[in-house]
Specification:
Elements (H helix, E strand, L loop, with lengths): L2 H4 L1 H8 L6 E10 L2 E6 L12 E4 L20 E10 L4 E5 L7 H8 L5 E10 L2 E7 L2 E6 H4 L16 E10 L4 E5 L10
Parallel strand pairs: 3-5
Antiparallel strand pairs: 1-2, 1-4, 2-3, 4-5, 6-7, 6-9, 7-8, 9-10
């Protein structure tokens, strides 16, 4: 559809927006692929439930199972404008952009080499994921599980087990936290 000629008012509104603008509206519809927002300013969309759209990764810094973990239909939201999606004639929005990034806060307060307590989240072929709280999950790579390559890290770790870990690297842009196990005796925690 040629939105520019079919909906000139909508097109002009979307063209007037700038990255970083804060837009408010009401959650109009929740789909498995994202959330439609009816914006307070600007026209309605001729075919979609709302001119604003929040993709799943832009809803929250934390891992979520469903959009309804974060928003409900009819809820008022303020979002940051990311870009004008010219194909769908919609405003791509971010809800999480207006909230502090818990990983950045973790990186700011956690020096490399810091020992922490965490809870084993799950074991996978590449290593062990450890929940450090506040939505932060780190990985002990296989080679670090015992300070040597491990055939199967799953053998000695079970979900829910509390263990001591050392922070070896935090990559905020890639959203990764790497951990290792403390060396020496007495590392097992009950």
């Amino acid at each position: 559809m040629d939105w520019q000629s079919e909906s000139p008012e909508l097109w002009a509104f979307l063209e007037s927006l700038h990255r970083g603008d804060i837009l408010s509206g009401t959650v109009a519809a929740i789909e498995r692929f994202g959330v439609f927002v009816a914006l307070d300013d600007g026209p309605a969309h001729p075919t979609l439930p709302g001119v604003g759209f929040i993709a799943i990764p832009e809803l929250s810094w934390r891992h979520i199972d469903a959009p309804t973990d974060v928003v409900q239909v009819g809820q008022r939201v303020s979002c940051e404008f990311l870009q004008f999606d010219t194909y769908n004639a919609e405003a791509r929005l971010s809800l999480k952009a207006l909230e502090p990034d818990p990983l950045q806060a973790f990186a700011d307060r956690t020096p490399m080499g810091q020992e922490l307590r965490g809870t084993v989240d799950k074991t996978v072929p590449i290593g062990v994921f450890v929940d450090l709280g506040d939505g932060i999950v780190g990985l002990i790579p296989c080679k670090e599980v015992y300070g040597r390559p491990a055939v199967s890290p799953a053998e000695d770790f079970e979900a829910g087990q509390e263990i001591a870990v050392i922070v070896t690297e935090i990559e905020v842009p890639a959203r990764r936290v790497f951990l290792s196990r403390p060396k020496g005796p007495g590392v097992q925690m009950s």
